[in-house]
């Protein structure tokens, strides 16, 4: 039910936001397309940057001065600097206090056992079982010396002095220290928990053997005369000394990495006008390296200039295309899908052209540049096809080095292809299109070759490339891409419309059985619409096929529509209120769209289902509701309007007029030419006044042509025949009823 549209601020703001988003999408499509086109146009097959003119070990063919300054990295010096910096990063050693604590605990445990053994000996007991508990082994002479020592506290004190002199400096494994010495790692960084990190020379870190030598020197000072006691303490210290410093490889690698990252590359400069190679002098490896650098710099600058120029050219081309579509093709501009389709086709054409140029010995005359025009003429309209032919002429010539012959040939071939592709009804016509494109391309190239005073044979060979372009490249690619693009963008062409025009379509076969009156009505409407569209230059085939399916929604409730009701049977609407009857009638639009999508009808065909009714009023039930309304009851006409939308194209507008005309013509009691003319004029005027034709681009001249077409066809449908005499009764002259073929032929001629 239509209840009218409430223009609330919220709905107005929502509509504005949606419109703004759509414009952002359109502009985004143009910008993204410009970027892709620029990339396609500037990408070329790599030819390398190394000079073949200057060869290492050969005399330079000419003197070469640097045309531009070039800064480059001296990799050898950079690598030497990195190695130097890496070598200067000290290895990280970690002091392990738990090792020192473990060593002291072992000594204390040894001395504790020794004290118990001495007490046992003093008591006259065997000390052997107690000595068996010693945590480590020392030679017997040293053990005996310690057992007879009078003051073990002095031993503890001297041992602590030894440990302080050795463990606190740090003891490293001998193999690790030797490896570091061989690698010339003479600096280390010692990390001590709860203390600041210290940078030490490698020799300041001891090995176990070096710690033993230090211990021996300290004991020599403590016991200059008592050799046995000195030896006993040395053996005791030697037994417990072990590394308490470890190499932290992870931290070392991390610091080296940070140091390398901080090292800037060593850069050198080739100054402008600097002599790089002198003629006749043998080219050295360094000179060749500098020559390649200069050529690479020149190639980079050339590529950047070309990219900027191409981006500007593509941007201007797309900008002109944008404004052309905005001002002259507003209907296409409103459809984001069709805007996207235009750019997809242009990009595909450029991709095919660039891919062909990547092939060995490829000729620019084989680029399928007319492909975009053909596809757009098939899928949208001829005007846009010609526009894109002009766009492709500019872009394709840039790929070929702005050759004038490529530009003109592309423009002419594209235009010829659009002319020939108008209203293609048979697939065999693709051969005609290919021939037209190829011949136009070939003749244009032939004329340019003759103008350049080339030989006749050379001109003919070049023209054969153009002919092959049309017949063997452009036409087959267009033939293969067309159904794919139709399916992707939900479009129809005349070729696919011809396939849909087959009356054996499953929906139409259902309509014959379930809604025969509607089926006949659809055939008559399609005939009226096709003739009218031919008169005004619209797509008659689209109108005919669309009208075949415009009332498929009536299949669901066929008995509620007059054309499907048996003769003199009671109407189903007699037991319904006008409002309910209106709902049933309106629902055939929604049911038709659902059924069409179920059978995968394309969007251009589906548009006929809602647009052939527009927002018209179901006047019969509106009038019935007015007649049945009580005195104070108000009947809103908007409740009896179809939901729309109004016709958006000439074809759907013609379908609306044909549908109303055909339905109303059934009510004529005496379908004379004058009554038919009055009926057609009234229906067209009523639809025009009701605003049903406001959103399509029909002109008053078109409406006049449509009116005349309807009148002609309805007169043909309702034409009268001469009355034939009845059979003779008894007593009548039988010669009056003899068959006269000449008279029948005259009557038939008079009928038509």
**Amino- and carboxy-terminal Cα gap:** 47 Å
Q: Structural class of the secondary elements?
A: mainly alpha
Largest beta sheet: what is the strand line-up?
5-4-3-6
**Which percent range describes the beta-strand content?**
under 5%
The number of distinct helices, counting runs of at least 4 residues, comes to 30
Biggest β-sheet description: 4 strands, mixed
Low-pLDDT runs of 5+ residues are 1-6, 736-752
Helix proportion: 55-70%
Mean model confidence by pLDDT: 86
Strand count = 8
Which outline best applies?
elongated
Helix and strand layout, with pairings?
Elements: H1 9-42, E1 64-65, E2 70-73, H2 75-88, E3 91-95, H3 97-122, H4 128-131, H5 140-147, H6 152-166, H7 174-182, E4 187-191, E5 198-201, H8 208-222, H9 227-240, E6 245-247, H10 249-261, E7 267-270, E8 275-277, H11 285-328, H12 330-334, H13 336-357, H14 371-379, H15 382-399, H16 404-420, H17 429-451, H18 456-489, H19 494-500, H20 506-514, H21 516-536, H22 540-548, H23 578-598, H24 603-606, H25 608-611, H26 619-628, H27 650-665, H28 673-689, H29 700-717, H30 741-751
Parallel strand pairs: 3-4
Antiparallel strand pairs: 1-8, 2-7, 3-6, 4-5
Quick structural overview:
The chain contains 30 helices and eight strands.
What does this structure look like?
With 752 residues, the chain is mainly alpha-helical. Among the domains are: 9-45 and 306-496, no CATH class; 512-734, no CATH class. It contains 30 helices and eight strands. It has a four-stranded mixed beta sheet. A two-stranded antiparallel sheet has the order 1-8. Mean pLDDT is 86; it is low at 1-6 and 736-752.
């Amino acid at each position: 039910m239509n209840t009218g549209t409430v223009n609330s601020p919220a709905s107005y703001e929502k509509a504005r936001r949606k419109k703004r988003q759509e414009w952002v999408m359109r502009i985004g499509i143009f910008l993204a397309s410009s970027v892709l086109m620029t990339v396609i146009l500037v990408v070329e097959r790599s030819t390398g940057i190394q000079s073949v003119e200057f060869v290492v070990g050969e005399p330079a063919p000419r003197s070469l001065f640097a045309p531009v300054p070039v800064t480059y990295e001296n990799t050898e010096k950079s690598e030497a600097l990195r190695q130097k910096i890496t070598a200067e990063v000290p290895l990280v050693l970690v002091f392990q206090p738990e090792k020192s604590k473990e060593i002291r605990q072992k000594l204390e445990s040894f001395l504790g056992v020794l004290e118990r053994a001495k007490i046992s000996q003093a008591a006259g007991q065997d000390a052997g079982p107690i000595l068996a508990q010693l945590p480590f082994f020392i030679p017997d002479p040293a053990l005996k010396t310690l057992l007879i020592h009078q003051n073990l506290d002095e031993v503890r004190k001297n041992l602590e002095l030894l440990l302080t002199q050795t463990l606190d400096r740090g003891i490293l494994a001998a193999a690790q220290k030797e490896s570091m010495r061989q690698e010339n790692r003479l600096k280390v960084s010692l990390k001590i928990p709860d203390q600041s990190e210290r940078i030490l020379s490698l020799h300041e870190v001891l090995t176990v053997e070096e710690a033993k030598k230090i211990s021996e020197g300290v004991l020599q000072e403590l016991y200059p005369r008592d050799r046995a006691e000195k030896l006993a303490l040395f053996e005791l210290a030697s037994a417990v000394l072990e590394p308490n410093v470890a190499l932290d490889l992870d931290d070392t690698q991390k610091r080296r990495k940070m140091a390398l990252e901080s090292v800037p590359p060593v850069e050198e400069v080739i100054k402008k006008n600097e002599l790089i190679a002198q003629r006749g002098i043998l080219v050295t490896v360094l000179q060749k390296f500098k020559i390649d650098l200069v050529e690479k710099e020149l190639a980079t600058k050339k590529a950047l200039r070309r990219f900027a120029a191409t981006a500007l050219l593509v941007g201007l081309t797309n900008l002109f295309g944008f404004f052309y579509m905005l001002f002259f093709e507003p209907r296409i501009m409103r459809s984001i899908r069709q805007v996207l389709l235009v750019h997809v086709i242009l990009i595909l054409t450029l991709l095919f052209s660039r891919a062909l140029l990547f092939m060995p010995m490829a000729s620019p005359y084989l680029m399928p540049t007319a492909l975009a025009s053909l596809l757009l003429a098939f899928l949208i309209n001829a005007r846009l096809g010609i526009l894109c032919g002009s766009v492709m002429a500019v872009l394709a010539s840039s790929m070929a080095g702005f050759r004038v012959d490529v530009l003109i040939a592309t423009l002419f071939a594209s235009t010829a292809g659009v002319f020939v592709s108008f209203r293609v009804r048979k697939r065999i016509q693709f051969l005609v299109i290919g021939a037209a494109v190829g011949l136009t391309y070939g003749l244009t190239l032939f004329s340019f070759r003759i103008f350049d005073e080339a030989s006749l044979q050379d001109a003919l060979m070049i023209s054969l490339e153009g002919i092959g372009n049309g017949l063997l490249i452009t036409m087959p690619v267009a033939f293969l891409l067309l159904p794919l693009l139709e399916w992707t963008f939900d479009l129809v062409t005349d070729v696919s419309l011809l396939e849909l025009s087959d009356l054996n379509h499953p929906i139409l076969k259902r309509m014959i059985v379930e809604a025969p009156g509607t089926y006949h009505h659809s055939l008559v409407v399609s005939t009226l619409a096709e003739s009218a569209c031919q008169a005004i230059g619209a797509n008659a085939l689209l109108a005919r096929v669309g009208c075949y399916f415009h009332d498929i929604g009536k299949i669901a409730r066929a008995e509620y529509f007059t054309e499907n009701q048996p003769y003199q049977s009671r109407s189903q609407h007699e037991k319904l209120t006008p409002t309910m009857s209106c709902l049933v009638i309106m629902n055939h639009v929604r049911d038709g769209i659902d059924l069409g999508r179920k059978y995968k009808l394309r969007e251009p065909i589906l548009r006929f289902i809602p647009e052939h009714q527009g927002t018209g009023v179901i006047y019969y039930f509106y009038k019935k509701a007015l007649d049945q309304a009580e005195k104070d009851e108000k009947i809103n006409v908007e409740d009896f309007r179809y939901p729309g939308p109004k016709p958006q194209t000439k074809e759907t507008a013609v379908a609306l007029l044909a549908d109303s005309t055909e339905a109303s013509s059934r009510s004529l009691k005496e379908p004379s030419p004058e009554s038919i003319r009055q009926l057609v004029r009234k229906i067209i005027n009523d639809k025009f006044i009701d605003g049903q034709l406001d959103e399509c681009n029909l002109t008053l001249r078109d409406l006049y042509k449509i009116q005349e077409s309807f009148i002609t066809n309805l007169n043909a449908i309702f034409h009268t025949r001469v009355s034939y005499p009845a059979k003779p009764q008894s007593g009548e002259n039988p010669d009056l009823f003899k068959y006269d073929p000449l008279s029948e032929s005259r009557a038939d001629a008079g009928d038509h």
